[in-house]
Amino acid sequence: MGVPEEGRAEDPPEQAFHSAALMFGLLASPLRLRIVWTLAQNESDVTRLALRVGARPQAVSQHLARLKLAGAVRARSEGQRQIYAVTDPRVKAALGTMMAMTVADENTEPESADLA
């Protein structure tokens, strides 16, 4: 790593880049991203979550297993059901920023080219 310029923050440690890349990779699936987004808004069980995101419960369950293993979501028992939620405020903040940027890009109309 280079020597930081005056007034510039030091680069994060190499492991931080690897961890961030893993999290971005985990969220690279549109369905998984939708699941995390939905769970960041409200906790849910698999059946309700599947209806909300428009996927089969089996597929949602598989994605939840990966997300739980990576620490992006947490589960708690409620009777015989597992209730999933995003509890880490950092995941919520990163997801909110990512989606706000994407929505802003989608809503921005390209400037018309001057054809004259």
Based on CA atoms alone, the radius of gyration comes out at 19 Å
Q: How many individual β-strands? A: 2
- Give the topology string: H per helix, E per strand: HHHHEEH
Note poorly predicted spans. Answer: 112-116
- Total number of helices: 5
Describe the overall structure.
This protein has 116 residues and is mostly helical. Helix content is 56%, strand content 9%. It is built from five helices and two strands; from the N terminus they run ααααββα. It has a two-stranded antiparallel ribbon. The longest helix has 19 residues. It is globular, with a radius of gyration of 19 Å.
Layout of helices and strands:
Elements: H1 14-26, H2 30-41, H3 46-53, H4 57-69, E1 74-78, E2 81-85, H5 89-107
Antiparallel strand pairs: 1-2
Question: Features of this protein?
Answer:
single chain; 116 residues; mainly alpha; two-stranded antiparallel ribbon; 5 helices; 56% helix; disordered C terminus
Summarize the structure.
56% of the residues lie in helices and 9% in strands. A hairpin with a 2-residue loop joins strand 1 (74-78) and strand 2 (81-85).
